[in-house]
Write a structure and sequence with these properties.
This protein is of the alpha/beta class. It is 51% helix and 12% strand. The structure holds zinc ion (ZN).
Length: 324
């Protein structure tokens, strides 16, 4: 090796080492920065979780009903306040008075009849996932109750986590269309099939399970579809998908937001006179009252004789609206 080469090497090696040290220091600094940011995000997230749980717990405490209050809550709210509150009590009167088939606004509801004496109640949440999905799941978990979520397509990591949590905690994950835009999904049988495929594929990709239950946006008795709903029902059947309507509405999707008391009143209608009750709730950012109403509703149902709260499965008596 020439002296010249030796000299070059003796300069190059320390220079290379120094450069590596500088790069390592820079990268190390970046990692520390990123870790700090991540810690910040976690703290914000945990704070949000703690806050929402606190709000929820304080509400439950303030509004805890004694068991005796719960049993006559529906009657009380209806007789004392129903008329003046401006919510459509006539709708719910029909539920309470007719144990078999009854008719409301031209829609005939079939009351499930399994005749084994057990009243089966299915809590169903449409339109999620939302900022309240985790609160709803926490409440269901606290009471050891499984429910059914008819979800729409939301492609972000928070929603993926919520789809997954619903499945992992043993609830039923059903479809409620991908877009929930009536004009699009009900435009033609083809557009309906396209939308259904999209939500089915999304849920299968995220959870590894192919959903088999469906709730039509607006219900199968909706009067906005440009396509004959029977055609869409046939399509779902051909795909092995079972659709469910509801026979009790909590009324939480109305234009005027209801108080938790009103939602409780609506949701508890006629459960003891029916074998199968499918209650319609909503899981959207606008439905905070639903979250607050939920603990009382579950406690009231759990206090009823011979009554179970279950997730929708293939064993569930199908509740579908009659429509022209
Ligand atoms: Zn909906």
């Amino acid at each position: 090796m020439s002296k010249r080469t030796e000299k070059i090497i003796s300069i190059l090696i320390p220079a290379a080492l120094a450069l590596m040290c500088i790069i390592t220091a820079l990268l190390g600094g970046r990692v520390i920065n990123l870790e700090k940011r991540l810690e910040g995000y976690r703290a914000v997230q945990q704070l949000g979780e703690r806050e929402s749980r606190l709000v929820q717990l304080s509400w439950i405490e303030e509004n805890a009903y004694e068991a005796s209050d719960i049993s006559d809550l529906a009657a009380r709210t209806y007789s004392e306040e129903g008329a003046s509150l401006g919510y459509p009590c006539d709708e719910y009167e029909a539920h309470a008075s007719a144990p078999g088939l009854y008719d409301r606004n031209g829609v005939t509801y079939a009351a499930g009849s399994d005749s084994d004496g057990v009243h089966r109640v299915y809590l169903t949440f449409d339109d999620g996932p939302s900022i309240y999905t985790d609160d709803i799941l926490d409440i269901l978990d606290a009471y050891g109750v499984k429910a059914t979520f008819f979800v729409v397509g939301r492609e972000n990591t928070a929603s993926y986590a919520r789809y997954l949590r619903i499945v992992e905690e043993g609830h039923t994950l059903g479809m409620h269309s991908y877009s929930h835009v009536y004009n699009d999904i009900y435009a033609s049988p083809e557009s309906f099939a396209e939308d259904t495929e999209r939500i089915r594929n999304l849920l299968e990709d995220v959870t590894g399970q192919s959903p088999v239950f469906y709730r039509f946006p607006g219900g199968s008795s909706n009067d906005v579809s440009a396509t004959d709903m029977h055609e869409l029902e046939d399509y779902l059947a051909s795909e092995g998908i079972v659709y469910f309507d509801w026979n009790v509405s909590s009324g939480d999707a109305g234009k005027t937001p209801l108080t938790p008391d009103q939602i409780i009143h609506n949701a508890l209608q006629g459960i003891e006179s029916r074998d199968t009750t499918v209650i319609l709730f909503h899981d959207t950012a606008a439905k905070r009252s639903t979250v607050y109403a939920l603990p009382t509703i579950i406690e009231a149902i759990q206090a009823m004789d011979n009554t179970e709260i279950l997730p929708i499965t293939y064993d569930t008596t199908v509740i579908q609206h009659d429509h022209p």
